[in-house]
Amino acid sequence: MNTSEIREVTAREGLSPNKKLGQNFLCSDAVVERILAHAGVTPYDTVLEIGPGLGAVTEGLCRAALGVYAVEIDAGLARFLKTRFAQEPRLTVIHDDFLKHQPIPGITKAVGNLPYYCSTEILFRLAEEYRTPKIFVMLQREMAERIRALPGSGSYGAITVTLGAFYESETLFKIEKTAFYPQPEVSSTFIALTRREDPLVGDAHIETFRALVKAAFWGRRKTLATALSGSPHLSLEKAAASALVREMGLDEKVRGEDCSPGDFARMAEHLANHGPS
Ligand code: SAM
């Protein structure tokens, strides 16, 4: 749909783009085609679409997939989609908050032009609960940069480490604001995340890994040992935190933002196996 078609449809249906829900609809067929080409959906795929909006991407996903589950929080949009795609047996439109909806089993790919106010939580959910093999998402440009940031850089954070332990990421293309109606205030980037065949963190250590990452970035300007021992996310004495840093072969002055996802994975394994020493 182009801008005038979106205006016409939303007026006819009594819908008005809700800024709080991140409703910026794609109005560029070229961008939709690029998203679909990269997602490479096949008849073997069961696709989860988060925030289908007016269905710009949904239509193409349905053409290619075995099935599509489209989860939309907005009642008016969900109603519109059910009518628009009434003849599409491969599509299930779910009116719910994706963050609250019970996980849907059997998803092979997740696709979404994500609402930016909750994209971090959505990605955590896809990574940790769904364990989605392939994720294709449009994100605020700064968020995409955070995911791909290198240790020691200002953008490096908990999301970089958490996703990095389970996924390889790739920047696919950048999208200008003019591809959306209404135009957002920020620019966007479309990225792919591919689940590692052998994630850096084993199931047995995930809880400890999460707590360590939260603790380290809770005090990102502190040394790692000080952040780990002072954080409400972990109960570790200062001496034990210092010993952990030493045993990992890290410098005593190292900060959480200098540690790679692999370093955090090794720390989690060590703590889970040996406890604080
Ligand atoms: N996919 C459409 C497109 O590209 O034109 C719409 C994308 S728009 C950036 C984000 C969509 O996510 C909106 O339709 C919004 O209502 C929906 N949304 C926002 N928060 C949501 C949530 N927690 N769960 C499900 N959908 C949500």
How are the secondary structure elements laid out?
Elements: H1 3-13, E1 25-26, H2 29-39, E2 46-50, H3 58-64, E3 67-72, H4 75-84, E4 91-95, E5 109-113, H5 119-130, E6 134-140, H6 141-147, H7 158-166, E7 167-175, E8 180-181, E9 188-195, H8 206-218, H9 224-230, H10 238-247, H11 261-274
Parallel strand pairs: 2-3, 2-5, 3-4, 5-6
Antiparallel strand pairs: 1-8, 6-9, 7-9
Helix pairs in contact: 5-7, 7-11, 8-9, 8-11, 9-10
The structure holds S-adenosylmethionine.
CATH superfamily of the largest domain: Vaccinia Virus protein VP39
What Rg, in angstroms, do the CA atoms define? 21 Å
The amount of helix comes to 40-55%
> Which runs of at least 5 residues are low in confidence (pLDDT < 50)?
none
The small-molecule ligands in this entry are: S-adenosylmethionine
Based on helices, strands and strand pairing, what is the structural class?
Answer: alpha/beta
Helix-strand topology string: HEHEHEHEEHEHHEEEHHHH
CATH class of the largest domain: Alpha Beta
Contiguous helical run count: 11
Distance between the termini: 61 Å
Number of strands: 9
Strand adjacency order, main sheet: 4-3-2-5-6-9-7
Question: What does this protein look like?
Answer:
This protein has a seven-stranded mixed sheet, sandwiched between helices. Strands 1-8 form a two-stranded antiparallel ribbon. The protein has helices spanning 3-13, 29-39, 58-64, 75-84, 119-130, 141-147, 158-166, 206-218, 224-230, 238-247, 261-274, and strands at residues 25-26, 46-50, 67-72, 91-95, 109-113, 134-140, 167-175, 180-181, 188-195. The longest helix is centred in the last third of the chain and has 14 residues, at 261-274. The mean pLDDT is 95. It starts with a helix and ends with a helix. The relative contact order is 0.11. It folds into two domains: 3-195, Rossmann fold (3-Layer(aba) Sandwich); 203-274, rRNA adenine dimethylase, C-terminal domain (Helicase, Ruva Protein, domain 3), CATH 1.10.8.100. It contains eleven helices and nine strands. It is elongated. Helix 5 runs parallel beside helix 7 (158-166), helix 8 packs across helix 9 and helix 8 (206-218) crosses helix 11 (261-274). With 277 residues, the chain is of the alpha/beta class. S-adenosylmethionine is lined by residues 21-26, 50-54, 56-57, 71-74, 77, 97-99, 113, 115, 118.
